[in-house]
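Hi C.,

You asked whether I'd gotten around to modeling the 333-residue construct. I have! Everything is below, sequence then structure, no commentary in between.
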Amino acid sequence: MKIALTYNLKQKDESKPADYFSECDSADTINAITNAIRKKGHDVEAIDVEYPKLLSYFRKNSVDMVFNIAEGKSGKFRESEVPAILDYLNIPYTGSDTFSLALALNKAITKKILKAENIPTPNFQLFIKGNEELDPALRFPLIVKPNCEGSAKGISKANVVSNSKDLYKRVRETLEVYNQEALAEEFIEGKELTVGILENGKTKALPILEIDFSTCKNSGEYFYSWKMKEYQGDKDLGLVPAFHCPARLDKDIEERVKEVALRTHRAIGCADISRTDIRLDKFNVPYVLEINPLPGLDPKESNFPIMAYAAGMKYEDLIEAIILSASERKGLN
């Protein structure tokens, strides 16, 4: 099979905010995926998604499949840009379609769907102008997030607020810096979990990954903030969470968490792969924070490969499973 790998390369640009390129992939990740595809006997070429270059490439080259990890260029629907081009050109690709990618990036709309499906998610309010009256049903502490960003962009420990004054301060800062709505949701105290869903013949949940931040007390960080994700493992900064996979959960709670992740995957219409972030409260209720249809695939640092390894998979087996799932969906097998 001839495969093109579409990606956005992580860059350094001091004129941009520090988290501007956080969703993009490193050269190490791109090389790892390329090598894994080759190990499985496929021809592969990696294509940076500069759009004139991307269109020119597909006009001149015929491929059987696109392995898509591209985050797109900008805007609220950026993750749908490359799949939309591929749909127009009738080229099969891995992962979720344009609709699901656009939907999942919008936290507020995703949460509305989850609530309609009776899937637990923290209560929330969307701020468009920054002067809306606070919903009296919301209970502090709240956490403020940009509504259409991933990789914890725009989220620091200061975004967890305990009063209205701090709430509106963070909301206004989010509106100004990220030029989009600000989401405020109830902050769930409890275990941080993430669940990988992999479709390969049968849709299944991988072993649950528990992220324990108690080892990060010196950093002052106690959840997956941008700083935690970007500098995870930095001992000097104290950003050294402990990972437990499988998570330390009773069997019945484990099954409940996996069921919630599977229901979320299906409710948003994801395909092939997704990762759902969940907080387990003191009553063991699994609250879905968000779902990522384009989870990171760094073989050493990303959560999804960690869960795949716990399931007994090698990295190249994970990459091949994604390709096989997409091939089956597209009738290429």
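If it helps when you're writing up: The chain is about 35% helix and 20% strand.

Thanks,
B.
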